[in-house]
Design a protein that fits this description.
4 copies of one chain form a homotetramer.
Chain A lengths: L1 H15 L5 E2 L10 E6 L13 H11 L3 E4 L18 H12 L3 E9 L6 E5 L12 H10 L3 E4 L17 H9 L4 E6 L2 E2 L2 H9 L2 E5 L6 H4 L10 E6 L4 H9 L3 E5 L2 E4 L1 H11 E3 L4 E2 L3 E8 L5 E4 L9 E3 L3 E8 L6 E11 L2 E7 L2
Parallel strand pairs in A: 2-3, 3-4, 6-7, 7-9, 12-19
Antiparallel strand pairs in A: 2-10, 4-5, 5-6, 7-8, 10-11, 11-12, 13-15, 14-15, 15-18, 16-17, 16-19, 19-20
Helix pairs in contact in A: 2-3
Chain lengths: ~350, ~350, ~350, ~350
């Protein structure tokens, strides 16, 4: 009998170990801040997800994230016939794995209602069970009492908004007046809602973007070369949960998902210039001047509306140098619009290219 | 309230749907038999696995398998603090998904003991809860009473056999005498045990090979071109659970895992010839004759010890034609040993190449 | 000195050898015909290409083609400062490699003029030097005298037709009247011209599609899973140059390039049914009937405009099975339009799905 | 006639343009030096290669190299029936493309003789035609007169040394005495010769490693994730041909090819520490301390022979962080041998891991 117990312990150790390598995401810091890569919305078997909570930690570790929130539904627990309801279980289970993997695990839950108000993630809670209330208003209040950061999830989700366009209902306005919404998902899984950018500016909220993964990250985002699961990039004063929380409440974020960046100009503009460096002309002939633009980040940028004498469009691929052939009379700086960096519902980032 | 219920139903439908394409595995049938591709050993959150049972069905569907056995441990249930023990739950949960996905789901459980006898899968059971007995002998007897096919799993697993070499203990001999072992894993996850081939011949057992997956199949076997999760190929009279069971008890199997084939010569030899076709010479010059050998299967074959005038080694890659340049005096058939097709502990398949 | 000569011979043998595996393209035959996979347009250093002629043979061998035409420009020879003009050199150089690789190498040249008539490939010529004439009319006549098949290349190439739309100029009509155009490229490199299908029906010409490669095939078509360089599929009575030539003059062809098929309905319709097989219902419940459609070819098909009770759209991926969930009252056959199979400028193939 | 000329010019521009992105190789600089990534040995159609010279420039551009040497054979010109001999042609043809692509193109030629002395690359020559001499001694002298850097190529090439082991023949010793050998290939194409490291130390030569490519780089080194064509990394005072030449003559080099690094300890040791950074412990429990080691380079490192309490082996994958679980009593620094970094025939680099 003793031998049997021993081999069980071996199995147990195997099942919780985090192995393999952790990707280094090439995401620059901003001056004075460390860039924390976060996925603030994901599910496990404790609601309608397909994996055990520690698997979310393993995925985040491998993908180079700094922080994740496991946010199982409070009101939608389809596996309860087999798994008894426990709104803190996922966090309890995954917490030590997260510590060992250098991942910050944010204790969270998803308040899951019809629209309005739709779905809201309560992040940085202390007891999920207190959020299960008949009234959504009471549920949010209970979360706020725990100091939670309230994120309005996928406001234009077509299952709740047929036209895919997010709308501010009176209930949302009341929550905003109370200071009970602190961030809104601009990006969720595969879709994004440009209007969210304007609301985040108007109401001083954090722009967020997350996977909302139910299945397997590597199968949901199966890119041959680069993983680009959606993430909220948070500019924190330090790499701690307290630092992360302070930065989220202060709205110092942007979103990266596949080839889309969204965020307030005050953050995406310096972020762009941290990603890009422009070299001096390395060659000239009687027709042209040649320069190189290096993009040392993992994020692609597409520059459009270039000036006369410069390319109309420049694709700055991740971890790549782009050769730019200029006419002899072109004047620096070169002004471009960055097509894939959204700063408002109807605006993209404008940048100056100069060496 | 009504709207809320409706959106829950939408969520529910999403969570159980099997979507995407099903791979066609290029595995030939044998004359008179259909080749069923099976994984007879896998785990879920109901023991120490990381996924919900329906995910195993989805993986099998995508990978082109015909049948799977979810075989959670009876004696090792590390998640029982959160998931109450139910030895039939995984089967109950996944059964309708399997039907909808055209996957045969074999009701199973893993009897999980120290060596001897080690771990044994009971396949085709009717009630897993009856197999939870203090005595392993009683547990196996209970399974046999349900008509189970008993598979001895990973007999050389290093956690139980330090030298990695499987051994027949007195308890195994007793079980064999009783007719209570019907198959042995030649291959498990990433390792294989050549000695198993001799035992399967001697005791008239089925040779099996399985993933024993605990995590995610696509992350465990991440090949860039071809999926090659381990599988037991069963030569059945018909594609039904009854047909599969009859064939397993009759021992009509072989194992394919990555680039290894193992099985009895009576099955692997005709199987090899079904995979391969040899063309007539298509070109001759004064030095050489040129022929092509087509391998229309997904399985690579490595032929070695070629005759004088022919290449010493021939790599017949999957879904590929190999050009063979022969000396003018070479005599057909060309005799080769197939290095990666094991028929006994110390034998590989010998084949004749002729057109 | 003798040793030096020997090592040179070793080098020489290495440089002409065709090594590695030949892909088996999953392209079905039609009843009574063998499907020959051909690329009838490519370049080498003997005009403005970047590789030595034998490399084209190697690429075709690896990609599983049956026949290729190296068709260097007659009137555009930008490397002539370093490589003396010889319009038969590429064919002479590559011919023995092709024989050894079981590739049919079609002796060819590209008559390269402004529009009209644009560029025309003369295939199956005997002496390219006789085609270098001041008058394009004389050049074509010289090719026809050698028994050439004349293919009008990329009729809508934007360097010659700014709007990208091919046009029949009086010179083309005259050539057609003479019987001096025998095929037209529907597909070239990355672009296609639907109008060509109508012309090929009206004038009884072969529909062709080719790479027109100047660089490296694997870098031009770098698909992670499947190579899909453009190809003309020719339905020949036998796999010989004579068989290929007869079939081309008879117009028994279709074109496959990436996810586009183009051709006359009389060939693409039976070809589609050879690629696809429909299984009997394998499962029913009170709402639905489940069937599987297998696509055993390397070609994807996208079916649209499905009937009520069946999916609006069906993506039949290559080498994959598609699960189809039908309403209980749906009537067979299911009529679909195959969106990616073009039969005329404004028509796609209509098919019946039944088991 | 005029229109025809215009379209030819369009074609011409296309054929010489360098397009697409340039990879950023993650290769750190050393203090005071810039790391130049070089391939000092490659072939084109002007000897026994398969591509036009400008293609080598394009490949180097895409792969992020700084400098290349096109080194066609002087004594082996198998295409001379079709391409007249011109030992400076490849350089003349590719030079302007190289300038436009920010690639330093080193004028070179390969003196190609039986062993001894085997093959030698003359780099930084001014006129290749003067190196075609009956006597190899005269040929080398002619190169040296032009200021050439003489690299002894693949000294253990099995076509010239049956046992694959490089040997110093009397002729080599005489050349070394003359100061006529300045570097030796430690790595060539796919193989390497550890003994070369000792000779480079003894005779104060540069250690080099190159592709010697005849075909296509991307097909010769087809790694799914990372290109790792062999390269000589040169530590130069400035990124100019003069800077490169000075550094080569000074022997400030190392070689990276796939997962092998070779070079003198004085360069590989600081290079290793520039690639790696070690973090402070981020977590402790009662059994273990956890640290992270970041490898920000594209080069994998395999550390072996770890101390008690630390992992025996550490795989530091490129662009990845490795989590290290240490016993509580382990003492820093951790001493490891870097298995894949060779410093002498029988030595690997020993490193200290500390934070």
């Amino acid at each position: 009998m003793k031998r049997q117990i021993i081999s069980f312990i071996i199995l147990l150790l195997l099942s919780v170990s985090i192995s393999g390598q952790r990707r280094i995401l090439k995401i620059p810091d901003l001056d004075g801040y460390v860039s924390l890569k976060c996925d603030l919305h994901m599910h496990t078997v404790f609601s309608d997800g397909n994996v055990w909570p520690t698997y979310r930690v393993y995925e985040a570790y491998r993908d180079g994230l700094d922080a994740i929130a496991i946010s199982d539904h409070l009101e939608y627990v389809p596996k309860r016939e087999f798994i008894p309801i426990d709104f803190n279980a996922a966090w309890k289970i995954a917490e030590s794995s997260a510590s060992e993997a250098n991942i910050m695990l944010i204790h969270s839950a998803e308040i899951t209602r019809d629209m309005p108000p739709g779905h809201l993630n309560a992040l940085f809670i202390t007891d999920g069970s207190l959020l299960k209330r008949d009234s959504v208003y009471d549920a949010i209040e209970a979360a706020v009492k725990q100091g939670a950061f309230i994120q309005w999830n996928h406001p234009g989700w077509k299952a709740q908004e047929k036209d895919g366009i997010p709308k501010l209902y009176p209930l949302h306005r009341r929550l905003l007046q109370n200071g009970w919404i602190h961030g809104i998902e601009f990006f969720n899984e595969f879709e994004y809602y440009p209007k969210v950018l304007d609301w985040c500016i108007q109401y001083k909220l954090a722009v967020t973007g997350n996977s909302d993964v139910h299945g397997i990250i590597s199968e949901t985002y199966p890119r041959p070369k680069e993983i680009s699961r959606p993430m909220t990039i948070v500019f924190a004063k330090e790499r701690t949960q307290a630092g992360l929380k302070e930065a989220l409440f202060a709205g110092r974020t942007l979103v990266w998902a596949n080839d889309i960046i969204g965020g307030k100009e005050e953050y995406v503009k310096p972020f762009f210039y941290k990603c890009i460096s422009v070299g001096k002309p390395y060659y000239e002939n009687n027709r042209n001047t040649y320069i190189e633009i290096a993009n040392k980040s993992d994020i692609p940028f597409t520059l459009v509306n270039g000036p006369v004498g410069a390319p109309e469009t420049l694709k700055l691929e991740p971890n790549s140098i782009t050769r730019v052939v200029l006419g002899k009379k072109v004047a620096f700086p070169l002004i471009y619009d960055v097509k894939n960096v959204l700063t408002r519902e109807n605006s993209v980032l404008r940048v100056e290219i100069k060496y």
